[in-house]
Amino acid sequence: MPLALLALAIGAFGIGTTEFVIMGLLPEVASDYGVSIPTAGYLVTGYALGVMFGAPLMTVLGTRISRKRMLMLLMGLFIAGNLLSALAPAFSVMLTGRIIASLAHGAFFGIGSVVAADLVAPDKKAGAIAMMFTGLTVANVVGVPLGTLVGQSVGWRVTFGIVAALGVIGLAGIARLVPDMPKAEGVRLRHELAAFKNVQVLLAMAMTVLGFGGVFAAITYIAPMMTQVAGFADGSVTWLLVLFGLGMVGGNLVGGRFADRALMPMLYVSLGALAVVLALFTVTAHDKLLSAITVALIGALGFATVPPLQKRVLDQAHGAPTLASAVNIGAFNLGNALSAWLGGLVIAAGLGYTAPNWVGAALATGALVLALVSAALERRADGPSTVVTRSARAEQRAAVHQ
C-alpha cells in the first residue's frame, strides 16, 4: 500500500478522536461552562449535523480545485475548529468550533475514499479505502480512551489541543505524501449530481443508513445496558468500548480485503450476521462474558460493511464519484442519529435497556433486504449485456481455434 494512505489514516485518526472523545468529557465541559449535561450534549448533536450537511457542501465548494488541495484545506479547517474548541472562552464559541471541525469530516472521508481508491490497482480499491478508515477505527481504541484520560486528568482543553496537533501532522503528511492527481477531464458539478439519479447509488446509501444504524442502536445505550442489565461496574464501560473499537479495526480490515474479491457476498454475510448478533444481544446482555464478546462482534460486523459500501458507491457513481462518496459518509451519521432516536423511543416506552437491540436487528435486516434487491436489479440490468459478452467471447475462442 502507498505511504499516502498512511497520511490519510493519520487525518482519519484525528477526526475519529475529536468526534467521539467529547462523549467522555461532557461532565468536565459542562462544569467549566456552568451548563447542564443535556446542554453540553449539543456539542455531540452539533457535530453530527455538521457532518451531515457539511459533507455535500464542502465537496461542492471544492469541485474546482484538486483533491489533494481540498484535503489540505479540510485538514486546515479541522485544525482551526479544534483550536477554537480548546481556547473557547464561552460555550457558544466551543460549539462553533465543534461545528467548524465537523465540516471537514464528511468531505475528508468522501474525497479521501476517492483518492485512496485511485492510488491502487482496481482489485485493491476496497482494501485501500479500509486502510484509510483504519485511522478512524484505531481512534476508538487508542485516541478516544487516551483523550478522555488526558481530559479528565489535566483538562479537556489539553485534549483538543492535542487533537489539533494531530491535524497538523495529518496536513503535513498529505502535503508530502499524497500525489497531486489531476481531476477527471470534463467532470463538472452537474455530473456529480447526476450520480444521484442512479438507483444503485441511492440503494447503497440506504444500506449505509440502515446497516450502520443497526450498530449504533445498540452501542448508543451500551452504558446503561452493561451496568444495569449485565451487571458491570461503571468503570468497565471504557474497556467495553475498547473491545468495540478492536472489533471495528478487525472488521474494517477484513471487510476491505474480501470486498475486493466478492463485494456483494461480503455485504450479505456481514449484514446478515450483524442482524443475528444484534438480536442475540437481547439475551447475551444478561451475562458479562457473553455481552463483552457480543460488543466486539457488533463492532467487527458493523465496520465490515464500511469498505464494501463505500466502494459500492464509488463503483456505481463511476466517472464522478466524489460528491456521492462524501454524501455516503453523511449517511453513516444519519444512521447514527436515526437509530439513537428509535432506541430512545423503545426505552421510553418501558421495553427495557435491551430493546434497542431489536431495533438494531430490524435495521440491519432492512439493509440486507436492500442489498438483495440491489443485486437483483443489477442482474436484471446486466443480463442481456452479459449474454452478449459471453457470446462474443465464445465466437472469439472459436475463431482462434480455427
Automatic annotation (TrEMBL):
Keyword Nucleus annotated: no
Chief location of this protein within or outside the cell: membrane
InterPro entries named among the record's database cross-references: MFS, MFS_dom, MFS_Efflux_Transporters, MFS_trans_sf
Bilayer topology annotation: Multi-pass membrane protein
Membrane-spanning residues: 42-61, 73-93, 99-121, 128-150, 156-178, 199-224, 236-254, 266-283, 289-309, 330-352, 358-377
Any Pfam family matching the protein: MFS_1
Domain Major facilitator superfamily (MFS) profile: 4-379
Record keywords: Cell membrane, Membrane, Transmembrane, Transmembrane helix
Locations listed in the record: Cell membrane
PANTHER family (UniProt xref): CHLORAMPHENICOL EFFLUX PUMP RV0191 (PTHR43124:SF3), PURINE EFFLUX PUMP PBUE (PTHR43124)
Name the UniProt record assigns to this protein: MFS transporter
Source species of the chain: Streptomyces indiaensis
